[in-house]
Design a protein that fits this description.
Blueprint: E1 2-6, H1 11-20, E2 26-30, H2 47-62, E3 66-75, H3 96-106, E4 116-127, E5 130-143, E6 159-161, E7 166-167, H4 173-179, H5 181-198
Parallel strand pairs: 1-2, 1-3
Antiparallel strand pairs: 3-4, 4-5, 5-6, 6-7
Helix pairs in contact: 4-5
The structure holds inosinic acid.
Length: 200
């Protein structure tokens, strides 16, 4: 079976990308399947730059076509933070729970009317010569005052989807797969780069 390597070690992300790419007859693999791949230093100031860097570093290391995804949460009342630092908001090796606790702490005096937030996902495709292209998707929500649900990963127990009045932590993964930032980015990805997936 053909294989698409995704340059991430985030198990939640991989699970979602596998679901979102299930119509293709390809095996979606990740750096968790290849423990000896190089560490990727995420030092770009933008999601786009980090997505491209992940894809290029691993494409050059393997000589293959590689997908990179960089994503995060921007909270309006925090001037867009945690943004590109979403994974390490509470510290370099922070757990999702530590990041969520820090977010709630920072928003403790902020009323519901000012807790608007947005998830961003940037997906890059690269080959050993460099970036082939980058697409993006967004998803709007509101940050809850306490966690709800255990589905998803990261900030999902705090991210209320207004149309459902529930967090992604509470919603079925199939709903997240329809409306998430990652799913919108993947929809564009399939339109622009679907041919690469057929030719892997
Ligand atoms: P990255 O691996 O550097 O792209 O970091 C992404 C981080 O953003 C994750 O560790 C989460 O904290 C957050 N994030 C991105 N997408 C999602 C999502 O779909 N749900 C919850 N948190 C997310």
């Amino acid at each position: 079976m053909k294989e698409l390597l995704v340059a991430t070690r985030n198990a939640g992300k991989i699970r979602e990308l596998k679901l979102l790419l299930k119509e293709y007859p390809i095996a979606v693999t990740s750096l968790l399947d290849y423990p000896d791949m190089p560490e990727i230093i995420e030092d770009a100031e933008t999601f786009e730059g980090n997505a491209a860097k992940k894809a290029v570093v691993i494409a050059q290391h393997t000589g293959r076509i590689v997908m990179g995804e960089d994503s995060g949460l921007s909270v309006e009342a925090l001037g867009g933070r945690p943004g590109v630092y979403s994974a390490r908001y509470a510290g370099e090796k922070a757990t999702d729970q530590q990041n969520n606790t820090k977010l709630l702490q920072e928003l403790k005096d902020v009323p519901m009317s000012r807790r608007k937030a947005c998830y961003h996902s940037y997906i890059a495709l690269a080959d050993p010569k460099g970036v082939i292209g980058v697409v993006s998707g967004t998803c709007h929500g509101i940050i809850a005052t306490e966690p709800h649900g255990t589905n998803g990963f990261g900030y999902d127990p705090l991210f209320i989807v207004p149309q459902y009045h529930k967090t992604f932590g509470q919603l079925n993964p199939s709903i997240k797969a329809e409306i998430s930032h990652r799913s919108w980015a993947l929809k564009k990805f399939k339109l622009e780069f679907g041919d690469y997936l057929k030719r892997l």
